[in-house]
Amino acid sequence: MESEWMKALGGGAIIGVASLILLAFNGRIFGVSGIVGIALSKPKGETSWRVSAILGLLLGGLVMSAIAPEAFQAPNNPLWLSAIAGLLVGYGTRLGNGCTSGHGICGISRLSVRSIAATVTFLLFGFLAATLSALLGS
Amino acid sequence: MQSLSSLIAGFIFALGLGISGMTNPMKVKAFLDLSGNWDPSLIFVMVGGIAVYSTGYFFLRRKEKPFLGPQFIIPKPSAIDRRLLLGSGVFGIGWGISGFCPGPALSSLGAGSLHAPVFVSAMLIAMIAFAKLEGLRASKSFR
Questions:
Q1: Distance of alpha carbon A26 from alpha carbon A21, whole angstroms
Q2: Whether the predicted pLDDT of B69 surpasses 90
Q3: A86 vs B105: CB contact, 8 Å cut-off?
C-alpha cells in the first residue's frame, strides 16, 4: 500500500514537471481537454504545439505500456458505457473549461478559485458516479 | 521549437500518468468508489503534482516571457459560474463510470484494450459537438 502512495506521489511530481516544461518554454497551461478541444475546433489557429503535445502523450503512453503493461488495465464496465463516459467527459470538460490536469493540478497550484470549485465538483460527482455504479454492479 | 518542447512535455506527462496509476481505470475506480475497499492512494498524484507545479509557478511568474513563446497565456481570474459547475459535474460522472479522464485515455490509446479508443472517439465527437453548438450560440446572440 505504501509503495502505491509513493508511485502516485512520484508520478504526480513527474506530471508537475511536464506541466512546468510547457509553462516555461511555451507559456501555456497543460490542460489536456483544452489542448484537444481547441486543436479540434480551431484547426487554422495556433495548433502545432497542441498537436505535438497530444502526440507526446500518445508516444509516452506507448512507451509506458511497453514497459509496464499492468499499468493499463481495461475497465470492468461494458464497452458502451465507456462510449457514454467519453461523451460526458468530452462535453463536460469543454463546458467546464478543464479537467483533472488543467483544473486539478495547474489551476489549484495557481490558487485559481474557479479551478478549486471545478475540482471539488468533479471529484464529488466522480465519487458519486463510481460508488453508485459499483453498488449497481456494473 | 515550440512544438518540440510541447512534444517532450506531453511525453513526460504520459510517463507520469503511467507511473502514478492514473492510466489504470480500475485503480481510478477504486479511488472514486467509496463503497468497497477504498484505495485513496491516487490523491497523492494531486499532492505531488501541485507541490512541484506551484513551486515552479512561483519562480516562473517573475519572468516576463517564456523561453520560446512570446508571452505567458494564463487564464485571468474570473467568477465561478453555472457553466463551470455544470461542466465539471458532467465530467465527474463520465470519469466515475469509466475511470478515464482525457489525459490517461489518450495515453492508453495504444495499450491494447478497446475501451480507450472507444472512449476517446466519443470524447472527440462530444468536443466537436460542443464547439459547433457554441458557434451556433454565438451567431444567435449576434442577431
A1: 8
A2: no
A3: yes
